[in-house]
């Protein structure tokens, strides 16, 4: 592993200590700085070079989204384009989309466990070349031998479910996710990828994407379109809607996994669209 430096920003000392302990338990040689608010983080970001920022959203003096906006606008700052992971209890769709619009790299929703946080850090370290896939594979083997598996081994494979389970909207439509079987077409970046539906609700869908069938998979917060299908022939139902990618995970605990789960949060949904989705879910569930 190459030398790396991390900045943790949170107004709660307990949470800062928790994040620092989690990442240093996995990466013992990692250099970590911390700040209790956005103003102090600005000073550190101007002074030092970092490889990653873990930042709370709600803080006094300067919020996480204000710090993110400031950082992305600093043309002469060497940290301008570094990965910025928002760690926050604000997990609703509007906050996720707002963070994406301001250039956030990834999102961790509180409360989180050590594994979830370390997985996000490892994913960014892989992308930046701080840790190689060969080094990750060795860590996976070591964890499996010593502990029967560990957080690094699950960097792309932790069981991420949809967060709308058990919820309902005012018109009485059940929005909870259901495991269903069906087909879909994922459209992004001028690509059309045939996929299978794993879970579906009126707010989100989890698709199974075969890597060998698509040259490039979508990335987090990408804007996509999803065409959902149910039935056959004249009885077939079709519905297409827009969404944002909110999570990615490998189907198997291998860095060369053949399939990827793609979680998509629907956007621009009105009551009519939710009714159509509710009917489609019922058809696929029957």
UniProtKB/TrEMBL annotation:
Response regulatory domain mapped to chain residues: 5-125
Classification via PANTHER family: RESPONSE REGULATORY DOMAIN-CONTAINING PROTEIN, STRESS RESPONSE REGULATOR PROTEIN 1
Name of the featured protein: Response regulatory domain-containing protein
Keyword Phosphoprotein belongs to the record: yes
GO BP: phosphorelay signal transduction system
Species name: Oceanospirillum multiglobuliferum
SUPFAM superfamilies for the chain: CheY-like (SSF52172)
Entry annotated with the keyword Nucleotide-binding: no
Modified sites of kind 4-aspartylphosphate: 56
Keywords: Phosphoprotein
